[in-house]
Amino acid sequence: MKNLFAALVMLMVSGSAFAQSDKEFWFHNLEEAESYAALHEAPILMVFAGSDWCRPCMRFKKDILTTEAFSNYAKDKLTILYLDFPMRKENKLPAEQTKHNEQLAEKYNESGAFPYVLMLDANERVLGKLAFKNQSPEEFIADCEKLQP
Questions:
Q1: Are 136 and 68 in contact (CB under 8 A)?
Q2: What is d(CA 32, CA 53) in angstroms, rounded to the nearest whole number?
Q3: What pTM was computed for the model?
Q4: How far is Cα 16 from Cα 141, in angstroms, rounded to an integer?
């Protein structure tokens, strides 16, 4: 029974890891996102989020970023740079990632707003800001398309 439980846990963990890895256009590092954006001619959607404390951030991720409609659109049109700022100790990011996110927040999110969503080109030129106002994925996609070159 113990081995069966361990096997089930491993299956669940590997399944969730696989689900995340199929999003090859998602990044947590600006340099990697820029390389992908340049190669695929896909602007960067830079998302500042507090995954474990910011209710609007959680809702944005659930209602927009992880929906099938948005994923189908984004996989060919966008590069997602997801910058997380968790508060809970158990969700703490590695120090290097925290520093990276904070440096980008100083440059692009001086007001400290969450969620805060920008679209940039591969050269870090800001194309515009996007607001999450409880719109549908299709409405958010339309907002994204207005900013794309």
A1: no
A2: 27
A3: 0.83
A4: 26
Six-digit token pair at 79?
């590069």
| Domains of the chain, earliest start first | 24-147 (3.40.30.10)
Residue count (the chain): 149
Q: Confidence class of residue 67 from pLDDT cuts 50, 70 and 90?
A: very high
The gap from C-alpha 18 to its chain's centroid, in whole angstroms, comes to 17
Please state, in angstroms and rounded to a whole number, the distance separating the CA atoms of residues 18 and 71: 15
26: left (phi over 0), alpha (psi -120 to 50) or beta: beta
CA-closest candidate to residue 135, choices 147, 144, 122, 123: 144
Q: Is the pLDDT of residue 18 over 50?
A: no
